[in-house]
Design goal:
Helix content is 31%, strand content 21%. By secondary structure, the chain is α/β, with parallel strands linked by helices. The protein folds into 4 domains: 69 residues, Alpha-Beta Plaits (2-Layer Sandwich), CATH 3.30.70.20; 172 residues, P-loop containing nucleotide triphosphate hydrolases (Rossmann fold); 208 residues, Rossmann fold; 36 residues, no CATH class. The chain has an 8-stranded mixed sheet, with helices on both faces. The longest helix is centred in the C-terminal third of the chain and has 18 residues. The site of one magnesium ion (MG) has 4 residues, from helix 13. The site of one magnesium ion has 4 residues, from helix 13.
Length: 591
């Protein structure tokens, strides 16, 4: 069994600690060079001398070390390794010449690395991180396998691969307008903009586009490029629920003639998009193993069950279950908060929200396209934005997690907690007992907030918000940057906390599985016809709310018989047509 020692370089601050990893290491104390100083001033942990005691892992004041065993991976299957104490990727997906292949797995398990390798953007080093990698070595390694032909074509330039990178916010550094950006890449700008509904942004500087618009622009450019292989990394980030469904249709049309690989955490979207999927299992930032392809009809269920039969790997202890939440009867509902009609006028935007009521123990989802006023509504309830008309309920204690997060201090979560001990507006006990295990924060407690990744910061922020005793929790896009596992865990946790304390929550989100797991009811936001107004209504029972939203996009969902999870119907399928005729866009499972 191989031992893996990982140094998380972003978290390691060798000038700010006492080198506890080295000082306490038993082999070092016996005179062995198990942990030495590397050329970059950081520790290098010998994987052959390490005895796996885990003392350095616990002693590191920044949680920067991981020591683990890799029972499932075979050393000869290493595709790429980032340095001696760095991440390693095992196996690769091989996309067929046509159709859509999904890749589904936790954050930090090598999905983006696999796409870059397939695209030829990164020449894989096959584990030999200390010498420059070459295509000759790659071709030699894959001789006699089906990946050989792929890499041969990549190496000699006969297979054209295009890549939609994960981090589209980097495009905001591009000069010029959206049209110029596309023209520079050699695509027909007008057609590309039209394919994603961005016509009205044609002459807008790229630097001024929103995150969602940058995502659409990046997808439009990739899809409009003539290529053989399309590698699309996390297309749904920053997109609202309506745009997610629209780009899903765009990508499906592409997959009818081309080979497409998509990494995606929105399970409803991936399920609809892909014909087959590879699951990735492993340990964040340490290693990832790419499974054999699984037909889409069973891929998500395998993922939710957590057991890969043909590889005999269990990657989840408890299967994820969806449950039918029948609408609560009026007699069971005890009102918690009622809000009157509210209005907000900005110079260029006008929001109207109808009156509504939240019952004790209810989590309410807020859905709708971007720029329809969801954040503004939540901010009015949070007291962060005064209403132009109407008064948000007074005397209701709220706890608010904003949409956009920024680490404001270099303190770690543990330091924040210590400062909050004894503060009556913060429950350290709930944080430690419920939220740390529920959101898997154990390994993050000692990391400075600016060193956290997007998903880690999101989990920390949601935990800090949920630990404040309140009548109403306001969570704006809590699933952003989370992987599918983290979304499921968070959705269940929010629901449980709210039910148990008989309080209420409003949760803005775009992920249908997340909403389905967390919520009892929905508020629906819509754009006005004038393009400068938005309106919100509800809460409605889950099914009625989803129906209103889906009617606008003409997408229907059914329920999976085995897991009760919602599934998008294929456009024009028998079920799709039947449900549309009946006006049943969101099919509810029998309770
Ligand atoms: P995923 O897309 O599944 O989130 P990535 O392929 O981006 O994962 O990265 C997997 C791991 O590899 C990361 O957790 C990071 O620790 C490491 N890694 C990624 N890129 C680099 C790099 N250029 N240099 C060193 N380590 C890297
Ligand atoms: P959503 O959360 O649904 O994406 P927002 O509530 O963030 O929508 O924004 C709705 C509209 O209100 C946007 O067009 C935005 O430009 C505008 N807006 C939001 N905040 C302000 C503000 N402080 N000043 C002026 N306009 C604003
Ligand atoms: Mg990635
Ligand atoms: Mg918003």
């Amino acid at each position: 069994m191989a031992r893996i020692a990982i140094l998380l370089r972003d978290r390691c601050h060798p000038k700010e600690c006492q080198w506890e990893c080295q000082a306490y290491c038993p082999p070092v104390r016996m005179g062995q060079e198990c942990i030495v100083e590397g050329t970059d001033g950081r520790p290098v942990i010998s994987e052959t001398l390490c005895i796996g005691c885990g003392i350095c892992v616990h002693k590191c004041p920044f949680d920067a070390i991981k020591i683990l065993n890799t029972p499932e991976a075979d050393e000869t299957e290493i595709v790429h390794r980032y340095g001696y104490n760095g991440f390693r990727l095992y196996r690769l997906p091989l996309p067929p010449t046509k159709g859509i292949t999904g890749i589904l797995g936790p954050n930090g398990t090598g999905k983006s690395t696999a796409l870059r390798v397939l695209a030829g953007v990164e020449v894989p080093n096959l584990g030999k991180y200390d010498t420059p990698s070459t295509w000759e070595a790659v071709l030699e390694r894959y001789r006699g396998t089906s990946l050989h032909a792929h890499f041969q074509k990549i190496a000699n330039g006969t297979l054209r691969a295009v890549f939609k990178p994960q981090y589209v916010d980097r495009f905001s550094e591009e000069a010029g307008t959206a049209t110029e950006f596309l023209t520079r890449s050699g695509v027909d700008a007008d057609a590309a903009l039209r394919s994603v509904g961005l016509e009205r942004r044609a002459s807008r500087p790229v630097a001024e586009l929103s995150g969602g618009e940058l995502q659409l622009l990046a997808i439009a450019r990739t899809v409009a490029t003539d290529a053989d292989l399309y590698l699309i990394d996390e297309p749904s980030s920053y997109l609202d629920i309506v745009h997610r469904l629209e780009i899903a249709r765009l990508l499906r049309r592409l997959g009818e003639t081309k080979s497409v690989v998509v990494v995606e955490h929105d399970l409803a979207l991936l399920d609809y998009l892909a014909d087959q999927a590879h699951l990735v299992y492993g340990e964040e930032a340490a290693f990832g193993v790419i499974s054999h392809p699984i037909a889409m009809r069973s891929a998500i269920n395998t993922y939710l069950t957590g057991y890969l039969k043909d590889e005999n790997v269990r990657f989840r202890t408890e299967p994820v279950r969806f449950v039918a939440h029948p609408p609560k009867l009026a007699t069971q509902r005890n009102a918690l908060v009622a809000f009157p009609p509210l209005e907000k006028r900005f110079p260029n935007f006008h929001l109207t929200v109808g009156a509504g009521e939240i019952a004790k123990g209810e989590t309410i989802g807020i859905v709708g396209p971007n720029a329809t006023g969801k954040t503004t509504f939540v901010r009015m309830l949070a007291g962060a934005e005064p209403a132009t008309v109407g008064t948000p309920p007074a005397g209701v204690s709220v706890s608010y997690k904003p949409q956009y997060l920024k680490a404001t201090s270099s303190a770690s979560l543990r330091e924040r907690l210590d400062a909050l001990r004894g503060d009556p507006t913060f429950d350290v006990g709930v944080f430690e007992r419920e939220l740390v295990p529920g959101l898997h924060l154990d390994d993050l407690l000692d990391v400075g907030l600016p060193d956290l990744s997007g998903g880690e910061l999101q989990r920390a922020a949601v935990a800090l918000a949920l630990a404040r005793p309140a009548t109403l929790y306001l969570l704006d896009e809590p699933s952003a940057y989370l992987d599918a596992d983290e979304r499921i865990a968070m959705a269940k946790l929010i629901r449980r906390q709210v039910e148990r304390q008989a309080v209420g929550a409003l949760v803005v989100d775009h992920d249908v599985y997340f909403l389905d797991l967390a919520c009892d009811a929905l508020m629906v936001f819509r754009a006005g016809d004038d393009g400068v107004s938005g309106s919100g209504a509800g809460p409605f029972p889950m099914r009625g709310g989803m129906n209103q939203l889906l009617k606008d996009v003409q997408v229907t969902f059914r329920r999976d018989a085995e897991t009760l999870r919602p599934r998008i119907n294929r456009e024009g399928s028998v079920l799709d047509r039947e449900q549309r005729e009946r006006g049943e866009f969101y099919y509810e499972a029998a309770a």
